[in-house]
Write a sequence for this structure.
């Protein structure tokens, strides 16, 4: 009689390409990234950083109600997006705005969503950072954890049945892996042979819960095999490793009609959200270490610079240009009208049912009677 | 319960033609004439609707636990053979996975027809239905929708189902803007309503009265037809009291109406059919005529959908009411096996409530 051990003797290795100095490690096997792609990736990372800094500040000034940064996870965001094709369908969690940025969602569109104005695709119905864009094949973010994962399997199955050369790509965090939907999704994906890539950003923390209190397995990557899914652990702070892993996973998923699980080891440098103070539950030096020594943007920058593709001047130009564009976008977004009252009732169904028509009529009468009870910036 | 009453039901439709426009009213067709009628039970009528749905739309899929071999209630018989295993397939035993998968499939422009084997087991999928399917269109500003999703689930008493094969969970879903809840009372209704649900551009939960799967037999048009959603039907005209119900309960109420008639009480019976968004106008018009209302459902009385109907009608018809609104429903216990006959809102409980409402 022999019980299978609760864990392997050795931890699953982590695939890396760049060392902490941004040098390609010896014997690295990776997908080449050319100058144009590398510069675009780095510029996007800088844009994402700048966006986070400014929106965070704008929230602190009370001008938007909420914000979530992806500080520390810029490489997972941008490098995974870069390795995909535009036809691939993204079902995000909420800490992947970089994927949408990469696909061409404009700074103005980000700002419009955060301010919930009339240009927000979501018609001001959801909290800031719940982005979504049909034209960018990026499903609208919803707050519940892991619900997007089984949906991605359904989307992937559709792509397969339609004979598309594309896959569905869905993101989650380490906390998500405890949800039933995570396990449902992996199992369905394997059984349905769905071309879907699961990218789990294992950033160490689910709000205040560290991974040690989340699961006892060797991280997330080992869960794939139990479901019959090819899986890889990758250094999520190494843009070249993420790019290579996602690029390869995509080819496998589409060619072999099967799911792939990627565990990207990273760190949530920022607080969970603007409603959280993470210094209450984790040491400052831990945050500092990941912010400075393991910074994914700096690491990638060293490699890009080493290739002679990037200079201090480029850096200054991008940072100041993004900052300027963003401040302008925020100014416009803040000034723009809120969506009209009718948008409160639209889109519950494809057409207004009679109960909603009646409630809208009653509400309008009440507003006429007590106009001061209601925000004046919502057009009636 | 005898099957005679269902057969009797067959020839009594007042109107099957849409007279109130709603979302899909433009696509609603009349029921074909009486030619081409065939005697069918309810599971076979469901099966016909699924055949038509898959045949008329190559992007329609049927999936769930054990659907491949025909399903535990035989509703999916023959589908996999005819349409192939990639369009009709078993899923792992995981309700949240089934609905999550269905939402993703529907969001890509397909008709995703998901089966939950028993309504009693729908709760693991509650989050996917309530937080995801119902809000998919709204939260994206109509950029995305999963309107192609239809969730079928057998519900209700069956005589021996106990806690977990008998529940009527419709009220939970009636509290959720963004989905529709539809329950048919007979084979003919089941076929036409299910096709409407599958083709409706909104996610729908379709509860099938499992007691009637084999028991209810009715003449059903063989051709394709759709019945309008959000439209109640006056199944029986009357002048003294209005009875409102849905699903399997309709036949019990019909029997109570017949017995009441013998005692000189004229009952108007309404099948609500769609619970949200519901046809308040038809119920309101009837109560304004009769001055009395009785609602009956199998689900526990407290917080049941009967409470919503009662409150709405009292709000609108207070001065026309001759008596308090009566509710004859399941009791506030878990669904009990041995005690099922005591729990159920049976004919005599309804008859008694009719009489005391009349005598109030």
């Amino acid at each position: 009689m022999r019980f299978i051990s609760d864990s392997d003797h050795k931890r699953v290795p982590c695939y890396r390409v760049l060392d902490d100095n941004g040098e390609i490690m010896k014997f690295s096997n990776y997908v080449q990234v050319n100058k144009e792609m590398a510069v675009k990736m780095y510029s996007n990372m800088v844009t994402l950083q700048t966006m986070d800094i400014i929106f965070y500040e704008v929230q602190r000034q009370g001008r938007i109600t909420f914000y979530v940064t992806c500080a520390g996870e810029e490489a997972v965001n941008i490098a995974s997006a870069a390795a995909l094709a535009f036809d691939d369908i993204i079902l995000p969690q909420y800490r992947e705005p970089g994927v949408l940025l990469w696909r061409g969602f404009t700074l103005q569109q980000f700002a419009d969503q955060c301010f919930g104005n009339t240009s927000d695709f979501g018609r001001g119905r959801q909290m800031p950072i719940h982005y979504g864009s049909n034209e960018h094949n990026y499903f609208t973010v919803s707050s519940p954890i892991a619900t997007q994962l089984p949906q991605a399997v359904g989307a992937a199955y559709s792509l397969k049945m339609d004979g598309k050369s594309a896959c569905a790509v869905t993101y989650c965090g380490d906390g998500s892996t405890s949800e039933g939907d995570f396990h449902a999704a992996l199992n369905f994906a394997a059984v349905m042979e769905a071309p879907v890539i699961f990218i789990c950003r294992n950033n160490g923390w689910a709000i205040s819960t560290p991974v040690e209190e989340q699961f006892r397995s060797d991280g997330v990557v080992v869960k794939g095999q139990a479901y019959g899914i090819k899986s890889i652990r990758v250094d999520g702070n190494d843009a070249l490793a993420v790019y290579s892993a996602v690029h390869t996973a995509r080819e496998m998923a589409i060619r072999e009609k099967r799911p792939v699980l990627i565990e990207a080891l990273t760190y949530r440098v920022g607080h969970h959200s603007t409603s959280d103070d993470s210094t209450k539950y984790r040491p400052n030096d831990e945050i500092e270490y990941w912010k400075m020594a393991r910074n994914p943007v700096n690491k990638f920058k060293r490699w890009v610079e080493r290739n002679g593709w990037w200079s201090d001047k480029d850096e200054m130009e991008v940072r100041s240009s993004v900052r300027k564009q963003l401040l302008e976008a925020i100014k416009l977004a803040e000034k723009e009208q809120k969506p009209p009252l009718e948008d409160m009732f639209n889109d519950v169904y494809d057409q207004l049912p009679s109960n909603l028509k009646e409630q809208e009529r009653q509400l309008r009468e009440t507003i006429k009677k007590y106009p001061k009870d209601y925000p004046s910036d919502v057009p009636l | 319960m005898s099957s005679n009453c269902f057969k009797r039901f067959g020839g009594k439709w007042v109107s099957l033609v849409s007279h109130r426009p709603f979302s899909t009213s433009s696509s609603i067709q009349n029921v074909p004439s009486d030619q081409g009628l065939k005697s069918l039970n309810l599971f076979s009528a469901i099966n016909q609707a699924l055949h038509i749905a898959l045949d008329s739309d190559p992007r329609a899929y049927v999936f769930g636990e054990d659907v491949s071999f025909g399903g535990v209630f035989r509703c999916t018989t023959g589908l996999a053979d005819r349409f192939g295993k990639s369009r009709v397939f078993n899923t792992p035993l995981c309700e949240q996975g089934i609905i999550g998968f269905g939402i993703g499939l529907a969001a890509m422009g397909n008709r995703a027809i998901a089966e939950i084997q028993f309504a009693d087991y729908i709760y693991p999928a509650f989050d996917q239905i309530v937080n995801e399917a119902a809000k998919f269109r709204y939260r994206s500003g109509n950029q995305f929708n999963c309107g192609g999703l239809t969730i079928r689930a057998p519900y209700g008493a069956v005589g021996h189902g106990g806690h977990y094969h008998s529940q009527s969970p419709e009220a939970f879903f009636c509290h959720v803007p963004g989905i529709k809840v539809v329950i048919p009372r007979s084979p003919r209704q089941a076929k036409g309503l299910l096709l409407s649900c599958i083709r409706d551009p909104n996610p729908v939960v379709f509860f099938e009265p499992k007691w009637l799967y084999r028991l209810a037999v009715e003449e059903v048009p063989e051709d394709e037809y759709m019945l309008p959603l959000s439209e109640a039907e006056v199944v029986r005209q009357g002048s003294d009291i209005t009875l409102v119900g849905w699903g399997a309960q309709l036949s019990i109420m019909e029997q109570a109406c017949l017995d009441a008639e013998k005692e000189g009480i004229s009952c108007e019976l309404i099948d609500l059919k769609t619970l949200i968004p519901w046809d308040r106008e038809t119920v309101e018009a009837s109560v304004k005529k009769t001055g009395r209302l009785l609602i009956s459902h199998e689900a526990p009385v407290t917080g049941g959908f009967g409470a919503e109907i009662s409150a709405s009608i009292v709000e609108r018809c207070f001065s026309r009411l001759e008596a308090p609104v009566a509710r004859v429903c399941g009791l506030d216990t878990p669904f009990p096996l041995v005690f099922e006959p005591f729990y159920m809102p049976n004919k005599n409980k309804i008859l008694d409530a009719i009489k005391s409402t009349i005598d109030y």
Q: What stands out?
A: Chain B touches chain A through 48 residues (CB under 8 Å). Chain B has two domains: 24-221, 233-358. The mean pLDDT of chain B is 92. The first helix of chain B runs from residue 4 to 10.
